[in-house]
Design a protein that fits this description.
It is built from 19 helices and no strands. It is mainly α.
Length: about 450
């Protein structure tokens, strides 16, 4: 049986009090929420675009710093390790000192807020998430920008609702809409943002939430594209539609990716549980130790640290093959959970997309080895792998498919995505592995 979403308790009482908007408030409340959703989306788009642009700048500075550090020899070696360790430690100190709610992705906290109500100072949460995310992700931790953007934008939705004196249910709708707008901005994917809210955060279809989230996502994209441009995040050449012959590898590959998704979830939880053994160690010190490890890896292989977008693009371009692809896949598979265990602000989506694309590329290599006459392209496997791995880990298959399509513009791959994601999610479900955010809510 599917888990109950944060709003499903309210849905069960829909005949009594008309979920969220309320029958007694009528059309005036619906119009107010629709208008406020545009306000929420505009601010979410501005904050999300600023966050993305600053992260791009941080990635450039990190690459420059690593290059210069190699010129300085051993001094540069220790300077690099110390710099990333300090960045991680300071990000964790901000979290534990000012806003514990900003630890990790932030999405589990948003789900908790939708279920039981807001906790913490939203302005402080936004500030700590913004600065802490820049320090951790910009410093090289294998974390995603979407978690901080979702939590910051959810906080914006709550602030707007509270500022306009809306009731608690309407504030929750605006919170959900802000979260969707944040995801839309993080990946330039407006439909995926709305679908994620309904499929993961809300857990059911609700018309007021749908309307408000669509409005917020549309406004966020309009604002963010002024700064970020119109094109999808990843450049993929036009891909042809695939035939029935793709079905066997779609199902087989889906089972394999489903197993990888289960293993990845367990790796994240294992890393978090391992760090709890050092609960007497101050959080900033723990994050600093992980940062030092990432600094060492950055010295040896600068391209494998950070959020992972350049690696995903290289995979989609077909520039990672053979032993290099296997090595990078293994490193990223381990680095994501280790980075998340630092409890600094940072999400899981971007690292998952990197791993998913590489898993798809590895499947392509294996498939063409046994079926050398295949007409499929490696990019097709990589894009499908992104959707399937996301579905297996998060257990939000539709959001994963739409996200992969909007990120790459690969509208011709809906059918193989459906088959592979179906097999991946089914495999993870049969193995009784809970979705990652369900597990993280219990941990946090």
């Amino acid at each position: 049986m599917r888990r109950r979403g944060p709003f499903e308790v309210f849905c069960s009482m829909a005949n009594e009090n008309r979920l969220l908007v309320g029958e007694r408030q009528g059309s005036r409340s619906a119009i107010a929420l629709a208008l406020l959703s545009l306000v929420v989306g505009a601010f979410a788009g501005l904050v999300g675009a600023s966050f993305r642009l600053l992260l791009r700048s941080a990635d450039g500075w990190r690459a420059y710093f690593i290059a210069r550090a190699h010129e300085w020899g051993w001094v540069g070696f220790f300077f690099l390790i110390g710099g990333i360790a300090v960045a991680g430690a300071f990000a964790a100190w901000l979290v534990f000192r000012f806003a514990p709610q900003t630890s990790g992705s932030g999405i589990p906290h948003v789900e908790h807020e939708l279920k039981v109500g807001w906790s913490g100072d939203p302005i402080l949460i936004i500030i700590v998430k913004f600065i802490g995310g820049l320090l951790a992700i910009g410093g090289g931790f294998a974390l995603g920008r979407e978690g901080p953007t979702v939590q910051m934008s959810g906080g914006i939705g709550h602030l707007v609702g509270r500022g306009f004196q809306r009731n608690s249910n309407e504030c929750r709708v605006l919170l959900a809409a802000g979260a969707g707008a944040g995801l839309a901005t993080a990946f330039n994917a407006p439909i995926a943002g709305a679908i994620f809210v309904l499929e993961e955060l809300v857990g059911s279809y609700d018309l007021p939430v749908t309307i408000t989230t669509i409005g917020a996502s549309a406004a966020a994209i309009c604002v963010s594209r002024v700064f970020l441009g119109q094109l999808p995040d990843f450049r993929v050449p036009p891909l042809d539609f695939v035939g029935f012959g793709f079905l066997p590898i779609s199902l087989i590959g889906g089972v394999v990716i489903g197993l990888l998704g289960v293993a990845y979830n367990r790796a994240i939880l294992a890393a978090l549980n391992f760090c709890t053994r050092f609960s007497n160690l101050y959080g900033a010190v723990r994050a600093g130790c992980i940062g030092a490890l990432i600094g060492l890896l950055g010295w040896l292989a600068p391209s494998v640290i950070g959020g992972g977008d350049p690696l995903t693009q290289r995979t989609l371009d077909g520039n990672l093959l053979g032993g290099t692809l296997v090595a990078v896949f293994v490193v990223r598979f381990l680095l994501g959970p280790i980075s998340y265990a630092a409890r600094t602000p940072g999400g899981l989506f971007a690292p998952m997309l990197t791993i998913g694309s590489q898993a798809g590329m590895l499947l392509f290599i294996l498939w063409t080895h046994f079926v050398p006459t295949t007409t499929a392209l490696p990019q097709q496997f990589a894009v499908v792998g992104m959707a399937a791995f996301f579905g297996a880990v998060v257990r939000a298959p539709i959001a994963g498919i739409i996200l992969a399509v909007e990120l790459t513009g690969s509208f011709s791959l809906f059918l193989p995505m459906l088959g592979t994601t179906f097999a991946a999610v089914t495999t993870a479900t049969v193995l009784k592995a809970p979705p990652i955010y369900d597990s993280l809510r219990d941990v946090h």
